[in-house]
Amino acid sequence: MTLETVRAARKRIEKEIIETPLVLSEACSAQAGIPVYLKMENLQRTGAFKVRGALNKVLSLTPELRDRGLVCASSGNHGLGVAHASSRFGAHCVVVLPEDANPYKVSRLEELGAEIVKHGTTSDARQERVNEFVRERGYTQIHPFSDPEVIAGQGTIGLEIVEDLRHADEVYVPIGGGGLISGIATAIKEQSPRTRIFGVEPEHSNAMSEALRHGTPSALPGVQTIADGLAARITEELNLSIVQRYVDDVFLVSDGDILAATVFLLERARILVEPSGAASFAGLLANEKRSGNAVAVVSGGNVSLQQLQALRRTHSA
Fold this sequence. Notes:
Elements: H1 3-13, E1 22-24, H2 26-32, E2 36-40, H3 50-60, H4 63-68, E3 70-73, H5 77-88, E4 93-97, H6 103-111, E5 115-118, H7 123-137, E6 140-141, H8 148-164, E7 170-174, H9 179-189, E8 196-202, H10 207-214, H11 237-246, E9 249-253, H12 255-267, H13 275-286, E10 294-298, H14 305-316
Parallel strand pairs: 2-10, 3-4, 3-6, 4-5, 7-8, 7-10, 8-9
Antiparallel strand pairs: 1-2
Helix pairs in contact: 1-3, 1-8, 3-5, 3-8, 8-9, 9-11, 12-13
């Protein structure tokens, strides 16, 4: 993973994606006490950043591999990205979801024509089912976070941040498996080493923090968070090595903090964001030493108002 890898990904996908805006938020700036810019990936095609990496991977495959079929494990957003990329090239796409998958994301996948398979409730179970499709049907797997082409696609966000805000002092990135922060950190640090990169994880879904603590990826016994897009039990060596090299720190935030950030962004900043996408702003607020111009990557917005209302009722009970 290098800056040039990310730049090559940009050339490959630039006509297929939206170059999302970087917006100075007056509400967020007042709340944080520093200038806060929001990188609006909730406005990306499919409603989340994941389509960048999916497109880069699918475009890198030969037509023969695409024609055999594509498969991925996902909690929703990665599946949406792969389904969109597959539909652009007429490839059959299977998305393996948890049995308790977000209904809103399931409905979006159905609209894209993906074959949906629900299997288990853990990322391990989904991966086992994906492996069966690869082994038995010859499908190509599009890994959600530990594929170099996927990471490079996500890194195009970092290129856009540097171009739009030359003096970014801090960038906050949500972490699930670590694909997003791996790409963004590579793209930014290799151009602007002084810019501080911070990861943000739910406190009960902290696979990257544990990997950093142990020096190697290790599976969590379980995960529990309202941020379904960040519910990964384990990261991988590739992601860990990039985070070790380029990321300054990782902040843990509670589900209460994530929900508060989600509601704040909706009510005060007028932005509909899913909890996974609001985690970056929650992490920014958790950093008592925040300073300078800060960027929070709003990674996705695939959530309904009904779901947010239900979350508020549950967490206020």
